[in-house]
From TrEMBL:
It catalyses: uridine(2604) in 23S rRNA = pseudouridine(2604) in 23S rRNA; uridine(35) in tRNA(Tyr) = pseudouridine(35) in tRNA(Tyr). Coiled coil: none annotated. It comes from the Bacteria. This is Dual-specificity RNA pseudouridine synthase RluF. Pfam families: PseudoU_synth_2, S4. Its EC number is 5.4.99.21. Keywords: Isomerase, RNA-binding. PROSITE patterns: S4. The keyword Isomerase applies.
Length: 241
């Protein structure tokens, strides 16, 4: 059996750099083994394998990322395999993404869903590594307005519409005013502070409407605009929720 060694050790020897710098090059996606990029410093390489430091390689710390994703109907939104998180792959990245962020495996370290959404609903969900974003959308979530479009059947009187706008209590949460308006004759637009899962369906049922489909189109200041179902993009540095 041929001997092998850690990629970081081999790179440090060949590039006359420290082991720490070698690991940063590798984790930064700047190192190829036999022509294939490898991002694991502990990857084992044999003596006959070719190690290449790619053109443009530089030592840099990857900034934490936040991902905006358009979750399709029927897909779970959580942190487990088989969920919407699996859609965060290069082929689904929004064409023309302006973040200049490189897609690296370490962007999934600690990447968490911070905006739950029902499986039956579609629309914008947020995954993040950034503590300030998580705090804003989780700890301070009740103060963040979200916007939804609900496809419904049934009739709604002006009085019922006014009653909905005053808000409704749900699952122990007190009623707070919300903006409700007709987008067209079959679609209602809701703008309200982070609703609990199931709340909009409950509101529709209470008003005698049947909810056919639900789509979240905005969280805070950030809209889903431009993302088709299954697509994602990075949050730009200047964007705030």
């Amino acid at each position: 059996m041929s001997e092998s060694e850690r990629l970081a050790k081999r790179l440090a020897t060949e590039q006359s750099c420290s082991r720490g710098d070698a690991e940063r090059y590798i984790e930064g996606g700047w190192v190829a083994v036999d022509g294939k990029t490898v991002e694991e410093p502990g990857f084992r390489v044999g003596a006959k394998q070719t190690i290449t430091l790619l053109p443009g390689a530089k030592l840099e710390d990857m900034r934490p990322v936040t991902v905006l994703l358009h979750k399709p109907v029927g897909v779970y939104a959580n942190d487990e395999p088989g969920s919407a998180r699996d859609l965060i792959v290069p082929k689904n990245l929004l064409p023309g993404d302006r973040s200049n962020q490189r897609y690296l495996k370490r962007m999934f370290n600690g990447l968490k869903l911070v905006t739950p959404l029902e499986r039956a609903a579609s629309g914008l969900v947020i995954y993040t590594q950034e503590y300030p974003v998580a705090r804003k959308l989780v700890e301070e979530g009740r103060h963040v307005e979200q916007e939804y479009v609900a496809q419904v059947t049934g009739q709604l009187s002006e009085g019922d519409l006014a009653r909905l706008q005053r808000g409704m209590s749900y699952e122990g949460r007190a009623a707070t005013p919300m903006k409700v308006s007709w987008q067209n004759e079959t679609h209602l637009r809701f703008a309200l502070k982070t609703p609990m899962p199931g709340f909009i369906e409950y509101v529709c049922d209470t008003a005698g409407l049947q909810l056919q489909a639900l789509r979240r189109i905005r969280i805070g200041r950030l809209p889903m605009a431009g993302l088709t179902a299954g697509q994602w993009r990075y949050r730009l540095e200047y964007e705030r929720f």
